[in-house]
Structures are given as structure tokens and as C-alpha cells.
Amino acid sequence: MTLPLRIAVLASGRGSNLAALIAARDAGTLPVEFTLVASDKASAGALRLAEAAGIPTLALSPRSYPDRRAFDLDLFARIADSGAELLVLAGFMRIVDGAALEPWAGRIVNIHPSLLPKYRGLHTHRRALEAGDAEHGASVHFVTAELDGGPVIAQARISIESGDDEDTLAERLLPLEHRLLPAVIALIAAQRLALGPNGITLDGSPLTRPLNLSGFQLSR
Length: 220
Prior knowledge:
Layout: E1 5-10, H1 16-27, E2 32-39, H2 45-52, E3 57-59, H3 68-81, E4 86-89, H4 98-101, E5 108-112, H5 124-130, E6 135-142, E7 152-159, H6 166-189, E8 193-196, E9 199-202, E10 205-206, E11 211-214, E12 217-219
Parallel strand pairs: 1-2, 1-4, 2-3, 4-5, 7-11
Antiparallel strand pairs: 5-6, 6-7, 8-9, 9-10, 11-12
EC number: 2.1.2.2
Enzyme class: transferase
Pathway: Purine metabolism; IMP biosynthesis via de novo pathway; N(2)-formyl-N(1)-(5-phospho-D-ribosyl)glycinamide from N(1)-(5-phospho-D-ribosyl)glycinamide (10-formyl THF route): step 1/1
């Protein structure tokens, strides 16, 4: 019997993607054990969700540290102490120092609301609309020191409609994010997907393009 994958989650906001992960675990479709949910904001809704689910929580204020690197190194050391095997960034709104990321190479993923490599950083919905794009989406990628620049694992896509604004586009995309992230974590938990020296592999074969979310399944 395969043991559940031990994961920690970093989030800065309400935690809707965390809620999706917890729901998938509770439904028996995501074999994970949450070791910690941590945030840079003590008021983050994600911490309240974790507390309600009986998951250990941690809130650290960046203002209590002399610089970003000191904060990141302490935060990531505490995550390591939790016993996490995989770290999931689910709405964590900070750029992480490369020195803190280095020990987690290949063991940290992020969900980003754009079809990477388009629109790294903030205001992705607005930028897609201003560019006149026909479609928008979300990406899950392995995290590197380059902002939203790590290898992309999987994406979910939606068409941009004529009446869309930032809010409606974000609202329509969010349910897909809530399916995309658990689906990717499930592949990692099943030891089917990994990042090696030559890139991402799925079932031992190179992944030459991001997986696509179709329904509730990921496909090549």
C-alpha cells in the first residue's frame, strides 16, 4: 500500500485552491496528508480553512525579518521541519528567494492564472483581455527562481467571451483551477509525474507539452 504524499501548502489569500485540495482528499481522489498550511498573512482565509480541517498552520510576518531572504529561509526551514515531501503554492503572493527554493528543486509546484508563458506575474485576467486573446486559462508548473518561469506541467483553457471583464473571467476560470491543481498533485502522489535533469516525465516518458485538463482528467 502506497503511503499518502505528505504536502505543505503556502497561501496568502482566501484559500479556494486549498479548499479544492482538501475536498479532493476527503473524497478519496487525492492520496495526500497535509503537514502544514503556512501564510505570510495572519488574516489569510486559507489558515482558517486549515484550522477547520485540523491541519497545522503557521503565519509569519515578513516585517519581522531583516530582508526577504531571511524570511524565506526561515519559512522554508519550518516547512521542511513539518515533514512535507511536496510544497504547493496556492495563491502565495510573494517572490521566493532562490536560496530557499534550492533544496526543494523538483518538489515545489505553483498554480498561476494564465496560459504560461503568457502573463507572468499579476493582473493576468486584465492583460489577457487587453491583448484581445481568444482564450485564457490556468497553469500548474514546477517552481524555479524565475518568476512563473518553471517547467509547465498542465493547463486548463477557457474561451474569452465578448462580455467578459476581469471579474467574470476570473469567476469562470476558478472552477477549472480547482480541478487542475488536485489532478496534477494526484499524478505526483502516484509517482507518475516528476521533474528530472532532462525535464518533466510522465509514466517514465518525457512530457513534450503541458497536459490539458479535459473534464476532470488530464490528457496529453
